[in-house]
Write a structure and sequence with these properties.
Blueprint (H helix, E strand, L loop, with lengths): L8 H18 L28 E4 L4 H4 L17 H8 L15 H13 L5 H13 L1 H4 L14 H12 L6 H4 L6 H11 L10 E7 L3 E15 L2 E7 L7 E7 L4 E5 L10 E5 L5 E5 L1 H4 L39 E7 L3 E6 L2 E6 L2 E4 L5 E3 L14 E5 L5 E5 L10 E7 L2 E8 L6 E6 L5 E5 L7 E6 L5 E7 L8 E7 L4 E7 L5 E10 L4 E11 L4 E5 L10 E6 L8 E5 L5
Antiparallel strand pairs: 1-3, 2-3, 2-8, 3-4, 4-5, 5-6, 6-7, 9-14, 9-16, 10-11, 10-15, 11-12, 13-14, 15-18, 16-17, 17-20, 18-19, 19-22, 20-21, 21-24, 22-23, 23-26, 24-25, 26-27, 27-28
Helix pairs in contact: 1-3, 5-7
């Protein structure tokens, strides 16, 4: 968010040129050394625990020789995840608010990066599963890292950023849309049997996703061999990054069309049992090639959709993004939830999300992206919801069996050139809060069922300056309503509380980014009574150190009753 930026700019300025060049080179899908797997021509494939006569497909990958020696990891203050350099590598210069060599991210890009980084608190399995396979199969990529089992995570920022990069590809097209979902276990098995062979090109490799019912507990693993045990029973040998250097297996029963996987060391741990069938469709494959492509920037502006792979455009706001053919990609509002809670998103009778603990999807045009980050099931990541732009919706934030208020919950929406959301919500089991985000990204309302003091944030990217806003700790009673509206025509942000007994007291942060730099304003102890509307005239603010004009509409009748100026506490 806004407060995190001020510590990053100097380091990014020094490193971005070097890292971006490396990133762009490795992001090209036409690499000449991306071909056959196995440096020895795959004539001497290492042995596996399967009987030789049972092996029907084999890449030659082995966990001890080709997997990482460290296990899947979650939140660690010493670990680096996505930075603006990886964002540029993934999406191009359109995510930069500034021009020139240094990149300050647009507010929506910054928020997207932070949401993805937060999801890595639960584990980096997707990045580890994909990168281990890439380093095995892609000689160009492997040459920049060295022998995989010898790699250390701690102190290796290059590797840390690389794992985060490949992790993040699961969130956006073309990688997200290429995931083979909705298939029965026997169909997934057939795909592996036909594609998995010695000397196969990286084009024929996949990571595997396994999910608990309702697409929770997502975990990514690397399949490398298939064995036929007879009578329709098969095993898929996998590298599970939760268990370094150990061969593990998924069991598939072709006749029953079922699969199961015991992902824990102790088979008596029920949360570690993954099972599925032709109805659950909770076994998936993600092909490697789409990860090499320029990823589609859904949060870039509507006028920045073509020529996704253009590498010769150096103006930050002139670069564009779309699909691989340079056409405008369909645009969505991406909904993120972080915390022990569930969402149900509705538009009339249409719905997507969790209803009575079960996943439903009858929302026309809406899709979901299940996230794979599981670190020994300490995390239960909510899918990312993709709602078509321009379509109105209402969200119900629901407590689940894990909701105890100890882990604060965040809900964010990120769309073309804007972001907005709420953070710091204490969700309890049985709680149901109502959230409305305007489909244009300009307004929100929040009605909690318990007393809350959430943070409210907005971000907007324009052809001129970009802005981001945070209102921290806006207090509201149970059943009350917080409303906020960003009026770009008048250049002001309005906030209103209603149906609450107490005044709301909160702090304010504003950031403005032009083509070269970012300026900030900090205000403290703003107060607002129930029924009143407070306007923050951000367009009149002249920059660092200057006062901010605020206006109060008592009773919210459309008449400004008081005007004042607010000191910048940052001076």
């Amino acid at each position: 968010m806004l407060i995190n930026r001020q510590f990053k700019f100097l380091a990014i300025s020094l490193l971005s040129a070097i890292l971006i060049l490396v990133g762009c080179q490795s992001n090209l899908s036409s690499s000449s050394n991306k071909g056959g797997i196995g440096s020895d021509g795959s004539k001497n494939i290492p042995s596996t625990s399967l009987p030789a006569e049972s092996i029907k497909a084999d890449l030659g990958f082995r966990p001890a020789a080709n997997g990482f020696s460290f296990e899947n990891y979650g939140k660690d203050s010493n670990i680096k995840n996505l930075s603006p350099s990886e964002m540029q590598r993934m999406f191009g210069n359109s995510i930069c608010a500034t021009q020139g060599e240094s990149c300050i991210l647009t507010p929506p890009a910054q928020q997207w990066m932070e949401e993805v980084n937060k999801s890595m608190n639960g584990g980096h399995c997707e990045g580890m599963a994909a990168l281990s396979l890439i380093l095995y199969a892609d000689k160009d990529k492997a040459s920049g890292f060295g022998n995989i089992p010898d790699l250390s995570l701690q102190g290796n920022e290059k590797l840390q950023h690389e794992i985060a990069y490949w992790f993040a590809t699961q969130y956006v097209p073309p990688t997200a849309t290429s995931e083979i979902r909705g298939k029965a276990p026997s169909e997934i098995l057939d795909t592996l049997l036909t594609s998995m062979k010695p000397n196969a090109r990286i084009d024929d490799t996949y990571t595997m996703g396994i999910y608990q019912p309702g697409f929770k507990g997502g975990h990514a693993i690397t399949p490398y061999a298939v064995g036929d045990l007879g009578d329709g029973k098969y095993v898929v040998m996998v590298y599970d990054n939760n268990h370094p250097q150990i061969e593990r297996r998924i069991e598939i029963d072709r006749k029953a069309n079922t699969w199961k996987y015991n992902a824990a060391t102790n088979p008596d741990e029920p949360e570690a049992q993954y099972i599925g069938d032709a109805e659950t469709k909770t076994l998936t494959l993600t092909p490697t090639p789409p990860r090499y492509e320029r990823q589609v920037c859904n949060f870039c502006g509507l006028d920045e959709q073509a020529s996704a792979n253009s590498s010769d455009k150096t103006t930050a706001k002139g670069n564009t993004n779309g699909n691989a053919n340079g056409n405008a990609a369909p645009k969505f509002n991406q909904i993120f939830l972080e915390g022990d809670a569930d969402l149900l998103i509705t538009n009339g009778d249409q719905k997507i999300g969790y209803e009575n603990g079960k996943f439903v999807n009858s929302f026309s045009g809406a899709t979901f992206t299940p996230i794979k980050s599981s670190e020994l099931w300490q995390d239960d990541e909510e899918p990312i919801y993709n709602i078509p732009t321009g379509v109105p919706f209402t969200m119900t934030l629901q407590g689940n069996k894990k909701s105890d208020g100890k882990e604060l919950t965040d809900v964010a929406m990120i769309g073309p050139s804007y972001d907005l959301g709420l953070s710091g919500i204490k969700v309890l089991s049985g709680q149901k809060d109502v959230i409305q985000f305007d489909a244009s990204g300009r307004s929100l309302s929040y009605q909690p069922s318990n007393s809350e003091a959430p943070n409210i944030f907005f971000g907007i990217s324009t052809k001129n300056d970009d802005y981001e806003f945070e209102l921290d700790g806006v207090e509201i009673d149970a059943g009350g309503t917080i409303s906020a509206n960003l009026d770009t025509a008048k250049g002001r942000l309005g906030i209103k509380i209603a149906e609450t007994k107490h005044k709301a007291v909160f702090n304010l942060l504003i950031g403005r980014i032009d083509d070269k730099t970012e300026q900030k304003f900090e205000g403290e102890d703003l107060d607002l009574a129930s029924g009143d509307t407070l306007y923050l005239d951000y367009a009149k603010w002249t920059g660092n150190g200057a006062k901010l004009t605020i206006e109060l509409d008592k009773g919210s009748d459309g008449t400004i009753d008081d005007t004042a100026t607010l000191e910048d506490k940052k001076k």
